[in-house]
Design goal:
The protein has 187 residues and is mainly α. The chain folds into 2 domains: 47 residues, Single alpha-helices involved in coiled-coils or other helix-helix interfaces (Up-down Bundle); 119 residues, Up-down Bundle (AhpD-like). The chain contains 10 helices and no strands. The protein starts with 17 loop residues before the first helix and ends with a helix.
Length: 187
């Protein structure tokens, strides 16, 4: 079994506040295992609550479909070199896109991914924001509009990139490791 986090102590489940245990139990029931990010972020309960509240808000009533959200996460995590998110969200790309190869393409070089021109525009803008945020401008928004994305979807391209750039950095700083189960999901 992979330790959830290497750089900080992982709190004992029984010592966690009830609301964190409930959330972890829900995710464990849904996934069939407890994703290490849940165990790791429980290190600081207030941060756990804020992180997952923001995460849930990103997925609630989204203009982007779930496959697109996960594709952004993996492309951004690929350029940010985040092992946890590449593996964990790579599994989600494989599941939501129903494509066992897509996540590997996105991690290695998102430009090699077999996606539509519209989705490539989405990925180009998200990766540009992750790598070169000072270069983002109105032309990037216009490119997404021309690709058919609504204003809400364009917002989501940026906010998903921003949230997962934060997540990538935290996972790397804390040494959060992906669960072994993620490696084989959706293959």
């Amino acid at each position: 079994m992979v330790e959830p986090m290497t750089e900080f102590p992982v709190p004992d489940y029984d010592d966690l506040p009830e609301d964190l245990r409930e959330r972890i139990d829900e995710e464990t029931e849904r996934a069939g295992f407890t994703p290490n990010v849940f165990s790791a972020l429980a290190y600081e309960p207030s941060h756990f609550r804020a992180f997952f509240a923001f995460h849930d808000a990103l997925l609630a009533d989204a203009a982007l479909d779930r496959a697109e959200i996960e594709m952004i996460v993996v492309a951004v995590s690929g350029v940010n070199h985040c092992y946890y998110c590449n593996v964990a969200h790579g599994a989600l790309v494989r599941i939501y896109a129903e494509d066992p190869l897509l996540a590997d393409q996105l991690v290695a070089n998102y430009r090699s991914a077999d996606v539509s021109d519209e989705r490539m525009a989405m990925l180009d803008v998200a990766v540009k924001l992750a790598e070169r945020p000072t270069e983002i401008g109105p032309a990037d928004h216009e490119r997404l509009r021309e690709a058919g994305y609504s204003e809400k979807a364009i917002w989501e391209v940026g906010i998903v990139c921003a949230f997962y750039s934060l997540s990538n950095r935290l996972a790397m700083f804390a040494g959060i490791r992906p669960n072994e189960e993620f490696h084989s999901m959706g293959r």
